[in-house]
Amino acid sequence: MKSPLHNIGKSRSRPTRPGSGSHVLLSGIRLALLGALLTPGIAVAAAKGPITLYADQVHGLGSGHWTASGHVEVLYGDRRVYADTVHYDQALDEIIANGHVRMVSPGLVTAAPKATIHLRANEGVIVHPRYLLEAQQGHGHAENGKELGKGRYQLNEACYTTCHGEKPAWQLWSGRIDLNQNDNYISTTNTTVDVFGLPIFWMPYFSFPLKRHSGFLAPGVGSSTINGFYLGIPYYFDIAHNMDDTLTVNYFSKRGVMLQNEFRYLEPNYSGKLYMDLLPSDQLTHKNIWAISWQHTQNLGDGFSFNADYNHVSYKNFLSDFGGTANFGSSFVGGIGNAPYITSSGGLYYNSTHINAGATLQAYQMLVPYSVAPYSQLPRLFADAYWRVGRNGYFDWHSSFNYFSASAGPVGQRLDLTPTLGWRFSRGWGFLEPQARLYYSHYQIQRNLPYARATNRTLPALSLKGGLNFVRYGSDGSTTLLQPLFKYTYIPLQAQNGIPIFDASQPYQNFPMIFENNSLYTGSDRINAANQVALGLRGTWLTPSGRQLWQAAVGQIRYFNRRQINLAGDIVPQNQQSNYFFEGQYAPLPDINLLASSQVNAQQRNLQRLNLRAQWLPGPQRVINLDYRYTRGFVHQAGLSGAWPIYKRWQALGSYQYDITDHKPLEELAGIGYDGGCWAAHMMVYHQILLGGQSNNAIYLEIVLRGLTSLGNASNALLSQYVPGASMEF
Description:
This protein is mainly beta. It has a 26-stranded antiparallel β-barrel. Strands 1, 2, 3, 4, 5, 6, 7, 8, 9, 10, 11, 12 and 13 form a 13-stranded antiparallel β-sheet that branches. The chain has a two-stranded antiparallel sheet with strand order 34-35. It is built from three helices and 45 strands.
């Protein structure tokens, strides 16, 4: 392969000689003859538009057959021809260029020993051309070539690549290459893909766009324990500048043929995408398997908006079986194969300076047997508002109406009204914020046993939150901030076992949550009792450059009431104090980050929860993560993950997650990648324990031929999930 033509487009120097000085621009043969008499050595002729000619010598000017030699440059329209000699035949409207011929047109540069060009028709024949597509850096050579019209070329016995050097990493060798610059499209016939000098694939016909264009995309390949060998052949439909569709035929050796369609649209005020999958007569389940996913957002104007996110699968293991290979599972929460349920929602919203309101629908589909999905909310209506009162006061209003639906258990409606009146005094040394709040809920319950059909709950809440700011400026320019924080909260004790649990739960608590009014529960079905003070201490240290060196916080709640309600709504005894909550972050160097959060039982002095992560990010494509996760009675896991260049253009990556309690690995991923400049490749081998105990092994392989296409299965979504901070973006 000859070197690419990087400098072809540059104009030659134009030497001046006595008697042949400058150039003349004329538009007809009579003016050309006049120019010949006045300025010997310079020739000008006319095609459809004017022609400008630069040369050292010209012979036969005015005869209809002239020859220019020595640093010849011909300019016509938006094109240039450079050569050692150029002969022009007016009758044929033809120029024949010989010796170091270079032709420059928009986006394409060609070099050849000889070329024949018909100016008006924009046609020509080129002998042994070398060419360069400047925008794509695609280049190659051919036995001969033809210009079929403006922007249309045919190259015979030709090659194409985006790689450089005497032996390019990859090339397309074709009996014929058709280049259409008008449609930004290249098609080839009788094509062999040559990698490192070895033919690896033959195609009778192949096409690829220089820009977005309808046509076949590169196939995807892979393998997994559940599905067997995988081959996907996609076809891309360029419907409009703001709309496209990709139809993929996926073959799974253990399951059959799946049709997958992805439709995308984009308008100034709305956008969305629609996924649909269909696997008829699945060889594993002997059923028709399908899935659908639609996301849509729309600005309706005047503060109104709409969105929809609908997801449904006909087969509960669809995500675990196909999420990693068919690309469908990327739209679902929970990761590939590990979503216990999928959510569908939609709503109409209004937002202004003071008001935020909406009407939404939300439903769930269970994927894991014997698990319980959240209640569907069909519908949820809400209206929130916020107004300033005086200089430092404010009024905050939250209201909602929910209809909770489920296939079993109680269902019904709930009306929540939560007004809050507050005042915030803030100065550089600290702040003080009292609040008065009212929780009011009204329930209408169907299938109500053992609950009453109608139930009301009214609970007032008072709180006072404050803090101090202690700032110290070091002699080296560093800054230390220490903030003692407190919040006193009072909510009267009231049994709530007459209220069903629609959306209440007990979350994992952390340091910020101890300063919430309803710190024990999420949702509105349970409001904790409170006669308590939350105490906390938070500190931050900034280096002289402003970088945060460390941040840490510790806090606890002290209870003056000895009774509390549990999740069932019953009144139960309560300890004098909550767990201790810790969180911290330490970055001794800009590329090292240490994170920690924990809970310690104040009575038993034992560890309830601990999360640790040490991350080292010394540079691009370099990351090491050490993780440890512990929750008493539930989780005890450790993990190591990372990505690192190992030799020149090679990169290795891996992730190993281990269940310490069960003494077995949960997830194992190993991969290797290579970036060759004009091409790249990476392969990953993956093992995962899915929810329900099912195991899946998969292989992900992707080869990227830059400027042409990619082959295989893109796996960056999987990589970012299991190796935080890593990527193989080629």
